[in-house]
Amino acid sequence: MSKWDISGINEWKSGEFPLGAVIPESGNSRDYVTGGWRSDRPYRNDDVCTQCLLCWIMCPDSAINTENEEVTTFKLNHCKGCGVCANVCPVNAIMMVPEGCDLPEVK
Amino acid sequence: MPTQKTVAATGNTVVAEAMRQCAPDVMAAYPITPQTTIVEEFAGFVAKGRVHTEYVTVESEHSAMSACVGASAAGARVMTATASQGLALMWEELHIASGMRLPIVMANANRALSAPINIHCDHSDIMGARDTGWITLFAETAQEAYDNTIMAVRIAEHPDVLLPTMSCLDGFITTHSIDRVCIMDDESVTGFVGQYEPQNALLDLENPVTHGSFAGLGGPFFEFKKAQREAIERSRAVINEVGAEFSALSGRPFGMVETWGMEDADVAVVVIGSTAGNVRHVARQMRDSGIKAGVVKIRCFRPFPYAELVEALSGVKAVAVMDRAESFGAEGGPLFLEVRSALYDRTERVPVINYIYGLGGSDVRLELIESVLNDLSEIAAGAVAPDGLVYLGSR
Question: Is the pTM above the cut of 0.90?
Answer without folding.
Answer: yes
